[in-house]
Amino acid sequence: MRPPPKALIFWVTGLLAYVIAVFHRQSLGVASIEAAARLGVGASGLSLLAMLQLLVYAGMQVPVGVLVDRFGSKRMLVAGAMVMACGELVFAFSSGLVPGVAGRALIGCGDAMTFISVIRLVNLHFSARRNPLLVQLTGIIGQLGALASAVPLIHSLHAYGWTPTFLAAAGLGAVAAFLLLTVLRDTRPERAAGTPPGLRAAWAEPGTRLGMWTHAATQCSSAAFLLLWGYPFLVQGQGLDPSTAGVLLSTLTLCGMVCGPVLGYLAGRFPFHRSRLVLAVIGTTAGAWTAVLAWPGRAPLWLLVVLVVVLAANGPGSMIGFDYARTFNPVARIGAATGIVNGGGFVASMSVIALIGVALDLHGETGTESFRWAFAVQYPFWLLGTVQVLRYRTIARRALAAQPS
């Protein structure tokens, strides 16, 4: 049975808001070198900007999840779009670290309200059979925002300068808010009795924590690469020119858009083998990074291409975590469960970003050797994530087996 046209219209509208949110989220990554010069900060300062943005994003996940369950998607999406527009406006006129931090914090806050709200629209308006693929498509199409924050944003910064570029970014947020107000229709859900117990129940569910560790272990590497450190790594650490680095970042995003439907189909077709897909993503990511970091001197271009192609599976792989949240939780607490899953992933990403910056500052330079040791901080995250995925997979399967048939 086909979904009703209204459901598709609502999803597309929410999806457009998410595309713009991803643009805002990743705009710092390709502007990192210019940001360091304009704000007068080093590697640790850049890490602080990205880390605080992600800290606000991650810290808001559970509260936003509860608010989405209570107030609905439309109100949260409109609020998120306006907050992100204000953040870009502040960032456009920033000339020091403090206003820069304030701008990125606002962007993290508004960004936190977006994805969970769109996922709730999918859960409410589409069947369970279509859900895994539509969640993947939401994440994949949302990466168009990452494309817009790569080569086009680099070009705009070089052609028009800092302030006009980020003023235009603020205008995108205002456009998103207008479309959401005029197109999206979303009735306020009934307030569920005992919201805190619902939140506690979502956390107590082993499937929720399986989803959280899935999201954390698969997302952290590509997130750190796209949000901040990929562009400096390719330009300063590997000696590529900025245009080639931009193409590689765009390639990562485009390949992710191809991987998503494949992983979405496999997750829906073989639900009891989802953890194997997750472990495969973690293993290939660790293997690709090992090859690049162990290469004597600068890695050849073909190996960097292999790296970005492998990293492309990270984002779609992390979406399997939201499928776990949907599978093991009722709709009444899906927002809270999704917030827990999403928050865990971004706490891991924030930690990786911060540790890379600290490692670079400790080495005192941004050459090949410095980046080699800095990116090695990812290995403990992959190891811990693998152990926890295996652990909660076992617990979740036992819980399912104990349920009455």
Cα distance spanning the termini: 27 Å
User: How many H/I helical runs?
Assistant: 19
Summarize the amount of helix as a percent range: over 70%
* Stretches with pLDDT under 50, minimum 5 residues: 191-197
Shape by Cα distribution: globular
Please identify the structural class as seen in this structure. Answer: mainly alpha
Radius of gyration: 20 Å
Biggest sheet statistics: none
Looking at the chains present, what oligomeric state does this protein adopt?
single chain
Overall strand count: 0
- Helix-strand sequence: HHHHHHHHHHHHHHHHHHH
Could you explain the architecture of this structure?
It holds the Pfam family MFS_1. InterPro entries: MFS, MFS_dom, MFS_trans_sf, MFS_Transporters. It is found in: Cell membrane. The protein is an all-alpha fold. It is globular, with a radius of gyration of 20 Å.
Protein traits:
single chain; about 400 residues; mainly alpha; transmembrane; transport
Summarize the entry for a quick read.
The chain is an all-alpha fold and 405 residues long. The protein has helices at residues 5-30, 32-39, 43-71, 73-92, 97-112, 115-125, 131-142, 144-148, 151-160, 162-183, 195-204, 206-237, 242-269, 274-294, 301-311, 314-328, 334-363, 368-375, 379-402. The longest helix has 32 residues, at 206-237.
